[in-house]
Amino acid sequence: MKNGVVGAAPLPALTWCCQGWSPPRCRSQIRQVRIPLQPHSRRTSGVTTAAAAIAASWRPGRTRRTPGAAGSCSARAGYEVRAAASFRSPPPTDSRGATSWNRTTAGASTGFACRRSGPRGPRLLAMGPLSARLLIQRGRPKCDRLGKIRSLDLSGMNLLSEHLDPKLLSRLKQLQELDLSNNQLETLPANLGLSHLRILRCANNQLGDVTVLCQFPQLEELSLEGNPFLTVSDNLKVSFLLPKLRKVNGKDASSTCSQVENLNRELTSRVTAHWEKFMAALSPDEEAEKAQADFVRSAIRDVRYGPESLSDFTQWRVRMISEELLASGGTQVHEANISERPPEATAIQEPRAGPVASKRPGDGPVHVSPNKRVCTSPLAQVEGIPVGSAGSQTALQLEPLHFLQCHSKNNSPRDLETQLWAWQAGATSQTVATCGGEAVCVIDCQTGIVLHKYKAPSEEFFSVAWTALTVVTQAGHKKRWSVLAAAGLRGLVRLLHVRAGFCCGLIRAHKKAIATLCFSPTHETHLFTASYDKRIILWDIGVPNHDYEFQASQLLTLDTTSIALRLCPVASCPDAYLLAGCEGGCRCWDVRLDQPQKRRVCEVEFVFSEGSEATGRRVDGLAFVNEDVVASKGSSLGTICLWSWSQTWQGRGSQSTVAVVVLARLQWSPTELAYFSLSTCPDEGMVLCGDEEGNVWIYDVRPLVAQRPPPPATPQAPTQILKWPQPRALGQTVSRTMVNTVVADPTFTYLTALTDSNIVAIWRRNQP
After folding, report:
1. Which keywords, in A-to-Z order, does the entry hold (predicted)?
2. Which residues of 189-207 are buried (b: 16+ CB within 10 A; e: fewer)?
3. CA–CA separation, 640 vs 620, rounded Å?
4. Which of 75, 154, 278, 684 is the most exposed place for a label (fewest CB within 10 A)?
């Protein structure tokens, strides 16, 4: 290993060409699977399907097409949803614990897949399994028996969750203090048997769930600092689950316990009132079992109390209170006397909710409310037609083509929960790379075939970037390599060789999760990574040598005051300046490599309005429309801002805070939810953005970018709003979803949307 990169696997003798597969020759090759849909159901285990594709086929005569509105569809549209097996059994894992790239045909019923991985690829450096001898060495007081140890220090050992063997640790019958800090733990086993534990330190790990702590009823002191995926709601859960807790992260826990009591008392009252209202409206003909399930779902959806930041905790408690009420026949609900409530009774109510569906960050821990607030846009009723003020622009003719479910957890076709976050256009206009959950997929937009799939267990991919490298072979010939960089939860950058089908490099870029990354448009080996540790690092990944090994080096470190969500090299001078949309606003850094400083602070902060409140507002969407015009989102509710880089920069002077020169404002959804990424199609002058209802907002901004300031007084309406086509999955209609990211290829032939419900939706543009 050198410069943070672990050695790569040698190129296999046999390589698989990305375009070497043929699509199914007829729809009879697709095996139809009908499974009842269970809303918010947990992912099932033991499912042998490796990838599922929701194939949408257009049936003429089953639906009406509005003139000028091709591509839109309603719940009655003629789409058949079909699940297809890509291969028959779960793929094997390589020496890195990551599944090798898989060649799959999403629709081939024969279940055929080809895999090839190198014998010595990069692997994570982690401590081996614990032993009794090791525990005795690190335990106190010094003794020769595990049963006599009262204090145990296992900090800083690179331990993974699977290294905590319950059979071994349960022999520590008298253990009262346990230090697991500075490891790589994502969860704790549920049956450690440490019933006398009073002090637990789990700082600086990757924990995503605290409900497992209920197994320590005697716990008095707890440390969870440095776990980026825990939220303020998890602090409340801890106070509820552990009745004897006195200190959390070194602070007194009494005020938090009091807050939990008040919340629980009010939630109990509201759920009881909701039960009475629900039962009064219940029809006598409805089945009891279905009515009970409907009540729990409706309570979680409708019972609200407290700020949005606590919604994870309140909905967790609403579910448990609702199920308690059902179990008692509606006659009683246990109110919140926290000190008397047995914690074991609460743990079984909540399935594990680790960091897997939680990218949406705040300045501190990451938090996503499972039941997201929905705001209805007044324009959302428009379906596939122009909605501009004069209606002068012609709507694009977009036809729904494919709906793919290829990022499923444990390959389960029931997984409609995995959030998909990032895309990257491929080597051809019809190829796209997507990431979400533990998988990275390369998809042919024309055929809907998943050309490649890479899986890394325990990873949660947040971002992916594509580059092409010129490699000189041993024979002296030059070849072009297509390389994908993928990163996320673990803070690692995986360099994936697309054609050969293996992970050929691993960069240990950050100690915390990576929110986004991008390659320089002028230097094919220069990669920017932005992390939750509030740093942006510029890497030179280098060109692989004859043994196909990368030797990455760190070029620059850029300090930020908040998490960077989007990275965007300035189009007119990409080697000089980098723009970033951050939790705390839009900022710019000098990235010229001829300057001596290798660690730099923000050069300029851009603001989008006048006044003291103009700074510090989240910018979660950022892209260049052309070499001068920037599209940004998040600084003001319900709008997208178009502004001029050159005019803004010219008026900067020596100021560190500069108001942007606004060219136009675009009307967007009025939702208060964040992290809907916008994109642009510069060749066509288009801006694209999804919303919380599954719609795609399309703007033709060519007339707007040519006008001079000041901008029009009112935001400009979108050229077109593409409605969610409502495909059917597992026997039911997916009527609503959230479109996190939407992108079109350079010629705007294909439009791809990534959703919160594990669906990749692809439209094709029909030329008039």
Report:
1. Centromere, Chromatin regulator, Chromosome, Cytoplasm, Cytoskeleton, DNA replication, Kinetochore, Leucine-rich repeat, Nucleus, Repeat, Telomere, WD repeat
2. eeebbbeebbbbbbbbbbb
3. 11
4. 75
- Classified as helix, coil or strand, 275 is helix
Rg value, the chain, Cα: 27
pTM for this structure?
0.58
DSSP string, 419-450: -EEEEEE-SSTTEEEEEETTEEEEEETTT--E
Calpha distance 224→207 (Å, rounded): 9
Instruction: Assign residue 761 a region (left: φ > 0; alpha: ψ between -120 and 50; beta: otherwise).
Output: beta
Q: Is the pLDDT of residue 372 over 50?
A: no
DSSP secondary structure of 134-198: HHHHHEES--S-GGG--EEE-TTS---GGG--HHHHTT-TT--EEE--SS--S---TT---TT--
What is the average pLDDT across 558-576?
Answer: 95
Neighbours of 171 (CB within 10 A): 16
Q: What is the DSSP string of 46-95?
A: S-----EEE-----TTSS---TT-TT---TTS--------SSSSPPPB-T
Domain positions in the chain are 132-249, 256-325, 398-765
Q: Residue 87: which residues within 8 A CB-CB, separation 6 or more?
A: 50, 102, 104, 111, 112, 113
Could you give the C-alpha distances from 636 to 609, 681, 696, in angstroms and in order?
9, 23, 19
Q: Residue 657: which residues within 8 A CB-CB, separation 6 or more?
A: 604, 605, 607, 615
The phi, psi pair for 756, rounded to 5°, reads -80, -5
The fold of the 398-765 domain, in CATH, is Methylamine Dehydrogenase; Chain H (2.130.10)
Q: Cα dihedral sign for 186, 189, 192, 195? A: positive
Q: How far apart are CA 237 and CA 316, in angstroms?
A: 9
CA 185-190-194 angle, 5° bins: 95
* CA atoms of 630 and 615, how far apart (whole Å): 18
Distance from C-alpha of 335 to C-alpha of 401, rounded to nearest angstrom: 52
For the ranges 117-121, 210-214, 650-654, the maximum mean pLDDT occurs at: 210-214
> Is residue 503 within 8 Å of residue 20, measured between CB atoms?
no
Question: Mean pLDDT score of the chain, rounded to an integer?
Answer: 75
Kindly state the tokens that stand for 42.
């947990």
**Which contiguous run of DSSP H or E holds residue 270?**
helix 254-280
Helix and strand numbers, DSSP H then E, in the chain: 9, 43
Between CA 640 and CA 129 the distance in angstroms is 52
563 within 8 A of 535, measured Cβ to Cβ: no
Same fold, 132-249 and 398-765: no
Angle formed at CA 233 by CA 736 and CA 239, multiple of 5 degrees? 145
Distance CA 563, CA 571 (A): 22
Indicate the pLDDT class of residue 330, thresholds 50, 70 and 90.
Answer: low
> Measuring CA to CA, how many Å separate 148 from each of 72, 173, 707?
69, 7, 79
Least reliable range by pLDDT among 7-11, 277-281, 722-726: 7-11
Closest CA to 461 of 521, 409, 402: 409
The SS3 assignment for 631 reads strand
Q: Comparing C-alpha atoms, which of 45, 718, 5 is closest to residue 377?
A: 718
pLDDT at residue 130, as a whole number: 86
- What does the buried/exposed string (b/e) look like for 11-32 if buried means 16 or more CB atoms within 10 Å of the residue's CB? bbeeebebeebeebeeeeebee
Hey, is 607 helix, strand or coil?
strand
